[in-house]
Every structure is written in C-alpha cells, then in structure tokens.
Design brief:
five-stranded antiparallel β-sheet, alpha/beta, globular, 17% strand, 14 helices, Methane Monooxygenase Hydroxylase, Chain G, domain 1, single chain, binds succinic acid, Flavocytochrome C3, Chain A, domain 1, FAD/NAD(P)-binding domain, 3 domains, seven-stranded mixed β-sheet, binds flavin-adenine dinucleotide
Length: 520
C-alpha cells in the first residue's frame, strides 16, 4: 500500500499547478499525480481562446472584469469569490510565465489580448489558438524536474477512501478522506493510496452528452466519487454549451472547437439563408454571452430544421486568420474548407460544467482533507454561466488557494493505521461488452435529447426514468463483473447525469445557461 503525503487525482492545469506548488514548497514530502489517461490528455490540452486576466491597466480594470463575470453568471455568482479570483489573476499568470509558458505578444512587446463573448474589453492572453497545449506540455515538463513528484499514467481513481471503508464511526466533523482506491490499468489491480490530503482535479463531464468539445476523459469521475463519498455538490444543472463546434466532424469522441476568439476578431454567425441573426437576440450581437448565443443558434436550427448554421470568417483576411488561428485553419483545411472563401458549418456542443463539488475560498470540500479544484469544483465564480476564458484562471487561482491551505494544515491531517485493501470480488469478465457500450450511448442520447440547451418538465421526467433503468442495469453488471475502466466510467457518467437531471428538476427559475421552457 503506497503511503504518500499528497495525492492528486488529475493532470490538467488544476492538478499540475497545485502539484508544482506543493512540490516546490515541500521537497521532503511525497506527492503523486495520477491520471487515468496518457500524461497530457485533459480538457486543458484542448483550450484555445486563452486566460482572461486584467493586464492592460489603462483600458481595462478589475472592476470591469468583475462586472462582466457577474453579468455572465446571471446573479448566481459569489461576488467575494469573483473579486478574489479576478484580483489574484495577474499574480497567478506571472507564475505561469515564470514556469516557462508563452503568451503571444505584439511587436511592441505587449500582450496580444483577445476578445470573447461577454467581455467588455480585450483581456484574453493566449498562445496562438493552442493555449491549453502550451500550458499542459510546459507544466508536465516542469513537474518532471521534481524528484518528489511522481506522475503516474493509466491510474484510474475508482473511489475515495473514507470512514465508510475503515468501518470507523462518523464524528461530528463528518466525513474524512484518507486517499483513494486506484485501478492500475497496466497491472489490472486496485492499489490503495493512503494520503494525508487528496485533491480532486478530475475535470469536466462533457461525455455525458453525444456532442461535446470535451475529450473522452471527461466522464465526471471526480464528481461521482465525491457524490458516493457524500460530498456536497451543486449547480450541476448549469451545463455550458459552446455555440461553435465544427459540425459533422466527430473524432475520438469529441467535436473540434471553433474558438469564440474567431468571433472576437470579426467572424459573424449566419443562418441557412445567409443572414446574420444575433442582433435579433441581443444588442451585443455575436459577442453576447455564451448562453444567449447558444440558445439563439438552437432556436435558428429549430426554425430552419437544419443540422448546422454557419460562421462567416470571410471578413477576416486569410493572413490574419492563419496568424491568429493556425490550428483552426489547419483543421478546416484538412476537411477541404477554405475559411477565407467558405463559411464554417457549426453547431453548439456541451462544453463546460459551471457547477460541481462545492468548495470554500480555500478549495476545501465538505469532506475533511479533501480539496477540489478546476472544472470539477463549484467555487462560486461562474454562477449560472461561465464567462469565456475564466476557467483556466479559476483553476490556477484555486490551485493556489488549496496550496495555501495545505501548507497550514498538512501536519494536522488524520493518519489512520489500518486501511483495508479493496474488497476484491469473485468476478467474471463480461462476454458482452455491448452491455457497457450501448448504455453509454443510450445515456448520451437521453441527455442530448432531453437535457440539452432547452429543457421541459416532461423531458426531464423522462430522462430521470431512463437514467434510473440504466443505473439499475449498470449496478447489476458492476456487482458481478471484472474490473474495467469502461464500466467505472459508465457508472460515473450515470451518477453525473443523475445529478444534472435532479438539480435541473429542483430549479424553479431560468438563469444563465439553464433554460426550461415551462418556467419562462
Ligand atoms: P482537465 O484539464 O480536464 O484534467 C482532468 C484530469 O483528470 C485529466 O488528467 C484526466 O485524465 C484526469 N482524470 C479524470 N478522471 C480520472 C480518474 N478517475 N482517475 C484518474 N485521473 C482522472 N477554458 C478557458 O479558460 N479558456 C479556454 O480557452 C478554453 N478553451 C477550451 C477549449 C476546449 C475544446 C475545451 C474542452 C475546454 C476549454 N476550456 C477553456 C475549459 C478548460 O480547458 C477546462 O475547464 C480546464 O482545462 C479544466 O482543467 P482541469 O485541470 O480541471 O481538468
Ligand atoms: C474558446 O476558445 O472559445 C473557448 C474558451 C472557453 O471555453 O473559455
């Protein structure tokens, strides 16, 4: 049984930046960063637009960034958290730069600041249109320089270890986390990781839907684990749909994103007839906040009955497009699309979870010695709808907050002697993998058709019924089957979908990214 000081589940921006801070501050402590996939595979790796932070103190200000974040969140942000995150932004950005991460600059040496929906000023720092790739690879490179940090791939966290597993009484302080049971995908064994503190940095949930910008890893594992451990989880109904995923192209479980920064540079959304329509929905037009643009596109799609609308980039010169968006340019070219002459077919896709595991200002969950950070956490920053490019910022700031809290509390963390090994079951390999793959696809269909951009009470009730059947079937299979990551993920997807539907049903007012036409 590995005994370590700090266990980090997830190797995206949240997990890696926390690991670096703890690793640098405590060279004598043992730290493990575990990921179920290859080392860089994460939502972080695919981030395009960049990081929203106030660096231009003449045109921009903290007050403006705070006001834009609060407006996007539609009254449900925690104002104190918004202020803290925005004001911490420049300091955390400087740390990233000191770790070797590059951001584009003009010939005069100033940051080349992008504009995205809901922002009143240009304030998005980016590296071309591959900001996330630049961050991910540089953080991994830096992590590898630390002898006290182990980065372990193909290690799938299955469950958090709490009193429940130790058969200890629950104290007044509630649940305590002692580490996690982890499936080593190479040896096919469950390993018990005992840790003083654990950080959940397992990312998003996009794979709950059929059409998503998120890679295959985004199956809500951290949220489902926290739910099973009885952590508080909220705002799950606020799923953000990105307005512009490339239509008809689906590869490795995800749709390619056409960054909002493309609209920031002048591209215009058009309907089937070739008419620009966004001004009919919001005075800010194509740069209204994401919830408004996605709903408008959904409405136009329903009016026209077509599968996709268009993004007209012909207003941007080919040279400018290639300079700012080389990755998007290359992807379009690969499918035979010349963006300087042809419009890009687009459709909205599930993109980001605004809610998640509740944390306080220090990143602490409702479970002792358990932090959550990044997309799996509900910090209060996003409210009902995240402002574009605020999530990389949030992950960095909360990794820092969690680090500060760890600094103060790690020595006081509970350290039980006896942790039982995983209860290895007498199991058999299912001969019918179709039982798993079909249920995953069925869940995605139910969620896409009934719990999408526009919801109704009837569709939510139908979704709840279908999910309960999928739950029963999957639990029965789980009880008798051999360990399998696809089955672990299916269970987690079902729990995540359950939380999205139940919390949707509990919402009595439309806000931000949540829209139930029976409430309007
Ligand atoms: P992730 O980066 O998703 O990392 C999660 C990690 O957890 C992965 O390593 C994964 O393998 C691991 N993991 C998951 N489950 C388990 C398990 N059971 N056991 C072990 N490991 C596990 N935000 C912005 O602010 N600006 C942008 O420009 C931007 N663009 C985006 C573009 C795209 C296409 C997408 C998908 C998202 C974008 N976002 C953007 C959102 C942002 O990228 C994410 O919210 C953020 O990167 C999440 O970081 P994270 O560290 O929380 O999770
Ligand atoms: C984008 O580049 O459009 C994505 C930005 C984000 O999700 O914050």
């Amino acid at each position: 049984m590995p005994k370590i000081d700090v266990l980090i589940l997830g190797s995206g921006i949240a997990g890696l930046s926390y690991a670096l801070k703890v690793g640098e501050r405590f060279p004598d402590k043992t730290i493990a960063v575990l990921t179920k996939a290859a080392e860089g595979e994460s939502n972080t790796k695919y981030a395009q637009g960049g990081i929203a932070t106030v660096t231009d103190t003449i045109a921009d200000s903290y007050e403006k960034h705070i006001a834009d974040t609060l407006a996007a969140g539609d009254g449900l942000c925690n104002p104190a958290i918004v202020q803290m995150v925005v004001e911490e932004g420049p300091k955390r950005l400087n740390e990233l730069i000191n770790w070797g991460i590059n951001f584009d600059k003009s010939d005069l040496g100033e940051f080349d600041l992008g504009l995205e929906g809901g922002h009143s000023e240009h304030r998005i720092l980016h590296f071309k249109d591959i900001t996330g790739y630049e961050i991910e690879r540089k953080l991994i490179r830096k992590i590898k320089q630390h002898k006290n940090i182990a980065l372990l791939t193909e290690h799938f966290a299955v469950d958090l270890i709490t009193q429940h597993h130790l058969k200890l009484p629950f104290t007044k302080q509630g649940v305590t986390c002692f580490g996690a049971y982890v499936y080593n995908q190479q040896t096919k064994e469950i390993v018990t990781y005992k840790a003083k503190v654990t950080l959940l940095a397992t990312g998003g949930v996009g794979q709950v839907y059929r059409n998503t910008t998120n890679p295959l890893i985004a199956t809500g594992d951290g949220i489902a684990m926290a739910y099973r451990a009885k952590a508080q989880i909220s705002n799950m109904e606020f799923i953000q749909f990105h307005p512009t995923a490339l239509a008809y192209q689906f590869s490795h479980g995800r749709s390619f994103l056409i960054s909002e920064a493309v609209r920031g540079l002048g591209a215009v959304l058009k309907n089937e007839k070739g008419d620009a329509f966004m001004k009919n929905y919001d005075p800010r037009g194509d740069l209204a906040s994401r919830d408004i643009v996605s709903r408008a596109i959904d409405n136009e799609l329903k009016i026209s009955g077509s599968d996709a609308l268009y993004l007209d980039c012909t207003t941007i010169s080919k040279k400018d497009f290639q300079y700012h968006f080389p990755n998007i340019y290359a992807q379009c070219k690969e499918i035979g699309l010349d963006v300087s002459k042809q419009m890009i077919p687009i459709t909205p896709a599930a993109h980001y979870l605004c809610g998640g595991i509740d944390v306080d200002i220090h990143g602490c969950t409702s479970i002792k010695n358990l932090y959550a950070c990044g997309e799996c956490a509900n910090t209060g920053l996003h409210g009902a709808n995240r402002l574009a490019s605020n999530s990389l910022l949030e992950a960095l700031v909360f990794a820092h907050q969690s680090f500060l809290h760890t600094l103060e509390h790690i020595t006081q963390a509970d350290d039980p002697d006896e942790i039982p090994e995983w209860n290895s079951k007498d199991t058999f390999e299912t001969r019918e993998r179709i039982l798993i793959t079909h249920n995953r696809k069925e869940l995605q269909s139910v969620m896409s058709d009934y719990v999408g951009i526009i919801r109704t009470n009837e569709r939510l009730n139908r979704a709840a019924k279908r999910i309960s059947v999928l739950y029963e079937e999957t639990e029965t299979l789980y009880r008798k089957s051999k360990l399998s990551t696809s089955l672990f993920e299916l269970r987690n997807l079902i729990s995540t979908a359950y939380l999205i539907v139940e919390q949707s049903k509990n919402r009595s007012q439309n806000k931000g990214g949540y829209y139930n036409s029976d409430l309007s």
